[in-house]
Design brief:
With 253 residues, this protein is mainly beta. It has 4 helices and 18 strands. It has one domain: Mitochondrial biogenesis AIM24 (Double-stranded beta-helix).
C-alpha cells in the first residue's frame, strides 16, 4: 500500500496524455534552476521546451519493457529482469541493437506498483498498435517503452536504394501485435502531419517520416520519370511509401 503526493496533484505538473499503462507528465516550468538560468528557463517554458516524464502503472498491464537506463524510480511490488534470455539472446540483441541504433538490453518490469522513467526534454508519443494495422516501424532511437506483449524485431529495407538514396538506415525497429508503445520524438505531436493511405502512394523529399505502418512498402525513386527530368527539377530522389497504412511526418527533415 502506498500513497503519492505532489506529483500528479502538483499545479506545476500536468498530464498531457494517457494510453494503457502509460501516463505522460509535463512540467510546466522547471523550478529547480539557479537564478542565472531563470530568464532562459522562463522563455524555454513559453516555447514548450519542457521536461516530460512517463509514469507506468504496472497494475494495468502484464509488464512493460523500456530502453536501457530509462528507469528513474520504482514504487511498490515491482520486479526487474534484463529481458535477455541466455548468452545467445544477449548476442542476438547486441547484433540487432548495432543494426538499428537501439540498446542491446531492454529491461522488463512487472508487478503491482509504479515505474517512473527519467525526465526528458524530447516529446513523448503514445501509440496504440491497433491504429497502425498492428505493426509500426520507427526511426532510430525513438523507442522508450512498450507493454511486454508487444513483439519487437529488426526489419530491413526492401532494397538497398531505400537506405542509400533515402538517407535512412538499412535497419529499423518494428513493434507489432497489440498494446501501447511509448516513443521519444524531437517533434511535438501538434507539428506532426498524420497521413493515412488506402492503397495509395506518398512521395517525400527528405527523411521526414518519423514512423509508419509496416504494411507500407518503402522505396526510393526518381522524382520524375527520367534522370534528366529529375535533375532539371532540382528534386532528385524521393522517398516513396505505397500501400495501405499510416505515416507520421515531421515538418522539417
Amino acid at each position: 500500500m502506498f500513497q503519492i503526493r505532489n506529483l500528479t496533484d502538483n499545479d506545476n505538473i500536468m498530464t498531457t496524455e494517457k494510453l494503457g499503462p502509460f501516463q505522460v507528465l509535463e512540467y510546466i516550468t522547471d523550478l529547480s534552476v539557479a537564478p542565472q538560468q531563470a530568464v532562459s528557463e522562463y522563455f524555454a517554458s513559453a516555447m514548450n521546451v519542457r521536461k516530460r516524464q512517463v509514469l507506468c502503472d504496472l497494475r494495468q498491464t502484464g509488464g512493460v519493457r523500456t530502453q536501457a537506463g530509462a528507469m528513474q524510480w520504482m514504487l511498490g511490488d515491482v520486479s526487474m529482469t534484463s529481458g535477455v534470455h541466455g548468452v545467445g539472446g544477449l548476442i542476438s540483441n547486441a547484433f540487432k541493437g548495432k543494426m538499428s541504433g537501439e540498446s542491446a538490453v531492454k529491461p522488463e518490469y512487472t508487478g503491482k506498483g509504479l515505474l517512473a522513467l527519467e525526465p526528458t526534454y524530447k516529446h513523448i508519443l503514445l501509440e496504440d498498435l491497433d491504429s497502425w494495422n498492428g505493426a509500426i516501424v520507427v526511426e532510430d532511437g525513438m523507442f522508450l517503452a512498450a507493454e511486454t506483449q508487444v513483439n519487437m524485431e529488426i526489419v530491413m529495407r526492401q532494397n538497398l536504394s531505400s537506405a542509400a538514396g533515402g538517407k535512412e538506415g538499412l535497419f529499423n525497429l518494428c513493434m507489432s501485435g497489440r498494446g501501447a508503445v511509448c516513443l521519444e520524438s524531437p517533434y511535438p505531436r501538434s507539428e506532426l502531419v498524420e497521413i493515412t493511405l488506402d492503397n495509395d502512394v506518398i512521395k517525400i523529399d527528405g527523411n521526414m517520416a518519423v514512423c509508419w505502418s509496416r504494411s507500407l512498402s518503402f522505396t526510393v525513386e526518381r522524382s520524375a520519370r527520367t534522370l534528366l527530368g529529375s535533375a532539371m527539377s532540382g528534386e532528385g530522389l524521393v522517398n516513396v511509401y505505397r500501400g495501405t497504412g499510416k505515416i507520421l511526418m515531421a515538418p522539417v527533415a
